[in-house]
């Protein structure tokens, strides 16, 4: 059997990604400012975090662009969108709690300050500027793609924990879906299973006989939000199957051993 081919790096439109990050952050900010103390104190399914913790982390994740831009530029781009999910895994706990090291301030103030700084930076930072991150050098354009993942995943977390209805900007949801689909293809390379997340992504994964024409014998299909929850461990594979939120056909169409791809 020939070795599994690595998936091609996917391209993203930088202008659309910048708009997606700005709009999605504005959606979250609008919802957060309406939350009262009781709502902010609600528990979430993300460890021991409350809604307030989750909201603060999300503001930090978007605002980290400013911190990175303030440092001297990196010498090379060591991290790509494709490699980012696996590179961040070893330091996920450290990243998750990074917002706790900053000064405490009301969420409304934090979001207003972060949005203002984000707007300023997006007008002056070139796409190819190399940011010096704790995980390595990364282009601004690529880093902004990863912010769509943070925004979409945690918007969904906030909606589920707080009973909110924060909308998803279409390009942000599309980019997040594609990043996590490609992460699966990188983690479990192969062509024996086709994973479909309409209307945004189709990838092949899992070593084995490669499908070339006709209807694939092994197919997994899910809507974008279900996929995001599966890929980040928010919903277990078996639970999604039993709820018919994901459809799997074929003897190889079991992704329980390779999910989540991020957590």
Describe this structure in words.
The structure is a single chain. With 263 residues, the chain is of the alpha+beta class. The protein folds into 2 domains: 14-172, Four Helix Bundle (Hemerythrin (Met), subunit A), CATH 1.20.120.450; 176-249, Nonspecific Lipid-transfer Protein, Chain A (2-Layer Sandwich). The chain has 10 helices and 6 strands. A hairpin with a 2-residue loop joins strand 1 (130-133) and strand 2. Helix 1 (14-32) packs parallel to helix 7 (140-162), helix 3 packs antiparallel against helix 7 (140-162) and helix 7 packs across helix 8. The longest helix is centred in the middle third of the chain and has 23 residues, at 140-162. The radius of gyration is 19 Å and the shape is globular. It starts with 13 loop residues before the first helix and ends in a 14-residue tail after the last strand.
